Amino acid sequence: MAENDKKNSLPEGAATDFKDAMSYGDYLGLEQLLTCQEPRSEQHDEMLFIIIHQATELWLKLALHELNAAMMHIRSNDLPPAFKMLARVSRIQAQLIQSWGVLSTLTPADYMTFREVLGSASGFQSHQYRLIEFTLGNKNEAMLAPHRHDRAVHARLTAALEAPSLYEETICLLARRGLGIDTAQIKLDWSETHQPDDSVRSAWLSVYRDTEAHWDLYELAEKLVDLEDRFQQWRFQHMTTVARIIGDKRGTGGTSGVSYLRHPSTYDSSLSFGKYAPNYNYYPEKTSAGRQEMNGKMIEIAADDGGSFGAYVALPESGSGAGLILLQEIFGVNQNMREVADLFAEEGYVTIVPDLFWRIEPGVALGYSEDEFNKAIDLMGKFDVDQGIEDIGATLKALRAMEVCTGKAGCIGFCLGGKLAYLTAARKDIDVAVSFYGVGIEGLLGESGGITCPLQMHFAALDQYVPEPTVAQISDHFAGHADVDIYVYANVDHAFYNHSREASYNRPASMMAHSRTIAALHKVMGPHFNLEALWDDHLKFEFETRNTPDTLATMVGEPYVNHIPTMTGGTGFEELGRFYANHFIPQMPKDTHFVPISRTVGADRVVDEMIFCFTHDQEVDWMLPGVAPTGKQVEIPLIAVVNFRGGKLYNEHIYWDQASVLVQIGKLDPEGLPVAGVEIAKKVMDKTLPSNTLMARWAVSAPK
Ligand code: HEM
User: Fold this and answer.
1) Is 478 in the pocket of ligand 1 (CB under 6 A)?
2) Which of the two residues, 137 and 14, has the higher pLDDT score?
3) Neighbours of 324 (CB within 10 A)
4) For the structural domain made of 531-698, what CATH number should be given?
5) Cβ(140)–Cβ(193) under 8 Å?
6) I need a surface site. Which of 296, 303, 401, 483 has the fewest CB within 10 A?
7) What is the pTM (predicted TM-score) of this model?
8) For 463-491, how does the pLDDT look when each residue is reduced to its tens digit (9 = 90+)?
9) 41-282, what's its fold?
10) Residue nearest ligand 1's atom 12 by CA
C-alpha cells in the first residue's frame, strides 16, 4: 500500500459501527454536554465565560466526590485511601487555579459586551462551591438562602451544613487516637464553624512534636494545610481577576463585588483548618547548633577612668527586676557565663556579665581545652584585681541606672570571680554577694570589716585551689558572723557549678548551691513569688480543667518532670508536652483526688505531702504503665518536690511507694516481703496505728 493511502486509512481494528454499540459520545453524554453552551448574546467572548464556569463546575463535582469519600475513609480509620483522594483534590485545585490564566484573556471591554445578559446570575449561587465550603469547614447557614427555590439542592446543602466537616472528621480521629480531645468537641450539631480549642491545639502539638510517632496524622494535617492553601490561592486569584474586570462595580449576584470577595469574613474564614492548624510556632526556637537561643545582648559600659568595655545583659521575662552582676571565671565572658546569665534572668534578675579582661584583651571567651586553659592562666596573671573591682563598680553604677533595674543589685562570682564577689562585698555598695569556689580569699580576710551585706560562700571539698585547711581558715574567720554563710560540698571538685565542664560538674551539688543562692538573693532583693499559688494553678490545670497547654504555660521553657518510681515524665517542653497530652492528663482516673498532709514552702521549692487516691478504672500510663485496669481502689502517700525558676515551675520530682500500689491492685503478694498495701496510707493519717508490724524482730527488743 502506498505511504499516502496508509496515512488516509483508519487504524486497523478501529470500531466504526455504533448502530448497536456504545460510542464515546454516548458514554459521556456529549450530546447533552455540548449543547449546554447557550450564549445569550451575539458576543464572541461569552462562550469563554460560559465554558470556564461549566468546566469549573465539573471539576468541583469531582472534588466533592473525592472529599466525601476521603471523609468516609477517615471515619473508618483507613487513611491511605483518604490520602490518595486528597492528593487528587489538590491536583484538581491546581487545575482550577490554572484556569484563571485562560479567563485573564477576557478584558473589561469584552465582559461589558455581554454582562447584561447574565441578569442576576453569579458564581455566588454555585451550590457546589458552597458544598465545598461547608465540607471543608466554613459553615454559614445564611448562604442557604439563594437555594431556597430548589428543594433538592437546599436539602443537600443543609445536610452538608449539619454534618462534620473534613476538619471535624479529623478531630474525631484525633480523639479516637487518644490524643486528649475534649469531649465537647465531639458534637451532635456541627452546623457552626469550628472554633479554636485548646485540646485540639495540644493534640496537634503532640503530633507535630513527634511526627515519627504520629506519622499518618502528620501526613493528614499536611494534606489539609495543602488543601486550604490552594483553596485560598483560587479565591485570591478570583478576587484579583474580578477586580481587573469589574473594578469596584457591584456583582451580578448583587453583592458589593470585590469588597465582598476581599472582606475578611468571607476571605479569611474560608476554611477552619489553616487558622487553627499547628504551625511553626509549635517548634521552640533553636540555633543552628541546636542550642536554645541566647536571650541577652552585648552593651558597652563606660569605665570610670576612660574607655569602655562590653557586658552581656539578659533580661527577665517580665522585662524588669533587681540587678545581678555575674563575675567571670578566668575564661572570660564565654558561652557558659552567658548561659548562667540567661538562667538568672529566668530567675527574675536583670543580669549583667562585664568583660573584666578588657584591659588586657577585650572580648575573651575561651573554652576549656589545654591551650585555652593555658591562655586563661596567662590572662589571670596579667589581671589587675583592684582595677577589676573598679570596673565592677562601674558596672554596678550602669546596672542601677538602667530603667529595667528596680534598684537593688547583687553579685555572684565563680573561681576568680568568686574572689572578686568577696572583694565587691567588702569595697562596693552591693546588696548581696555570693562567691563560688573563690580562689585567694584567705589572703584578703583583712578586708572583711568592709562587708556590710549578706555574703554566701560555696566551696568544694576536693578543690586543690582552695584546699580544706583554707576553707577552715575562712570559716573560722567568719565564725559567728550572722550574715555570712559558708557551705562546703563533699566529694566535689572546683568548678562543680559549671555545667560546661563535664569533668568537674556535679549536678546534685550545683542544684543545692543554686537553691541556696536563690534563697540569699530572694531574701535581700526579691522577687517574691507566691509559689503555693503557682503550684495550685498547675495542679488545677492538671487535675481539674485537664488542659495541657495551660499546664505547660505554668512552666519554664525547658521544664522536666520525673515520676521517680516509674521514671515517667519528660525533659524539655517537647517531651513533656507529649507526655502530658497523651499519657498523663487524659490518663487520670475520673475519681482522682488527694488528701493534703503537709506543705513546705522554701525559697524556690514547694514540697507537698499528700495521700493520692483513685480507682484503677483505666490504664494509668504514668503510674501503672502497661497494667490493665483492675477496678481496685488505691490510696498512696505521695511526695511532690516542686522546683521553681522565677515565677514558673522548673521541675517536679514525684515519689511514692510503688510496692504498696502493686499490693493494693493485687499485682504483688506482700506475703513474706517487707511491703504493705493501703496500711501505709492509713498510718500516715493516723499515727496511733501500730508501727513496726513488718519487723518480726520488733518483739525481740520488747522490754522484758
Ligand atoms: C468575568 C469573570 C468573573 C467575574 C467578573 C466574577 C465576579 C464575581 C463577583 C462580583 C462575585 C461576588 C458575588 C456577586 O455579587 O456576584 C463572584 C462570586 C463568585 N464567583 Fe465569580 N466572577 C467571575 C468568574 C468566575 C468563575 C470563572 C467562577 C468559577 C466557577 C466564579 C465563581 C464564583 C464563586 C464560587 C463566587 C462566590 C464566592 C463567595 O461567595 O465567596 N466566578 N464572582
Assistant:
1) no
2) 14
3) 29
4) 3.10.450.50
5) yes
6) 401
7) 0.56
8) 999 999 999 999 999 998 989 999 999 99
9) Methane Monooxygenase Hydroxylase; Chain G, domain 1 (1.20.58)
10) 257
